[in-house]
Amino acid sequence: MAEPEVASTDSEAVPTPENSTPLDDASPLEEHVPSIDTPTLAPTSPESRLSRNPSFSGSSSTYQEDWDSNFPPLDRLTVLELLDNFTLPQQLEKLQKGISAQTEKVRKSREAFNTKSRQARERMVDEWRRRVPSAEEQLDRYRKRMRNSVDKLGKRWNDTKAITLREKISFIFGVMNIFVSGYLIGGWPEYMHWWYTIQILYFMPIRFYTYHKRGYHYFLADLCYFVNFLLLLSVWVFPKSKRLFTAVYCLAFGNNAVAIIMWRNSLVFHSFDKVTSLFIHIMPCATLHCIVHLISPEHQASRFPAIYTIKHSPAGSPTAYANVLSMLAWSTIPYAIWQLSYYFFITVRRRDKIAAGRPTSFTWLRQSYSKVWIGKFVLGLPEALQEPAFMFIQYAYAVLTMLPCSLWFYYRWASAGFLGVVFVWSVYNGATYYIDVFGKRFQKELEAMRKEVERWQGEHEGLVGGGGGGDHGEEKKVGLGEGISGKVLDERREGDEDGGSGLDNIPLLNDERPAAAMVTGLEVGDGGARDVARERRQGRGGV
């Protein structure tokens, strides 16, 4: 028996796998039909919530039947279903309002930013206009700066005059020192030790004060000052000590004398510092030369018995200290005392200050001879071995310089020749200083002054030279420094003959004329002079 073709209607309920229980006539229809949450291929019940979109019913019903099955009657529509139709337009309207609000906010922010930028720009322009001085104010500032520069130059000139006065006094005393020392050596050698003592009592306090003020007081612990101290002890305190005299003689004619060459001491009369340095190194040798070779034996025996004993002792006797071995042995003892004291009290205890930049003899020699083979050798060693290596090299240098001291002691002309060589070397160093160092320093000072003058002109070239307009636009700009150096005097000579000297147009510092009048060199009320100047400019323009 064929099954009848049943169409889905509003009054019939089609059984589904989810609803296979037979219906009870007594129970309501809604209790037996569960709500369908997910779409299925089976037809939906009338009580279920239908979609607005048309769906496939699986039947051959007409379009009207599909319309009826998808949309329930109006009496069954709820309020929420009605309001749901207005949800999407409301959201779109809300989104559009948000976009409009953001657009308005961005527009207002952009307008506020433009307004603030414009106000800031206007304030900056106003501030710039307020700060930029006028031509008169710039000219007043220029005069003020020029006055200050002239005042500073005057102070420097006065300081230079004071320094020049001191240098003149130092020059006079330096020349007189050489003259008096030469006179005493040739005529009164028995008073040479007095002259040496007076000078050392004068030079040493000044040297201590100046070096301590400049931070060079560690140089006062060098061997040369120690040798001068030992010489004073040998002359005035222990004149009978043969061992002390032997050590002093070797150290003075050895290390001290050759240090004139090594330390480049120079005879520069106007420099008190250089004269003092040369005195410390050469005057002990000159004094010992006098008391050993130039005074009479009777005076030597009474005043300096140790020297007389050593000089007249036969070879091989216990008092013959003038041989090479004895001199090296007895001079090594005070040298070792000085070297160890210097190492512990200066190098070790003042290591932090030396590392901070306080100069010593070791740091000076290391810098001065850094490019020489011996300096490269020392600097190539580890840092912990550089100072011991320097001490060993210094002692070896002292021994080498003391080897010929026995010859200087016994032979007068050998001693005089050696003193003449080291003194001429100091004179040569002084000549080098005067010609090369001092001349180049003076040239650098002139160059610095020329650059400063050119800088002054460059800063105010537009202010002072702007009044000429286009009449002088094609002229060659020449710096004031070049004008001072005289490079363009010949080029401007013809123009000065035609239009007057350019020096007449330079404004004075106390000139109160307006800027235009000072530029042209004419008074404001002088109309005839302006006419003459205008005719000259037109005549030049025609040429």
From TrEMBL:
Q: Compositionally biased, Basic and acidic residues: which spans? A: 528-543
Segments of skewed composition (Polar residues): 37-64
Recorded family membership: Belongs to the GPC1 family.
Q: Where in the cell is it found?
A: Membrane
Q: Which InterPro entries match?
A: GPCAT
Protein name (record): Glycerophosphocholine acyltransferase 1
Q: How does it sit in the membrane?
A: Multi-pass membrane protein
What ranges does the record give for the region Disordered, renumbered to this chain?
1-68, 460-479, 489-543
Listed transmembrane segments: 169-188, 218-238, 244-263, 320-345, 389-411, 417-435
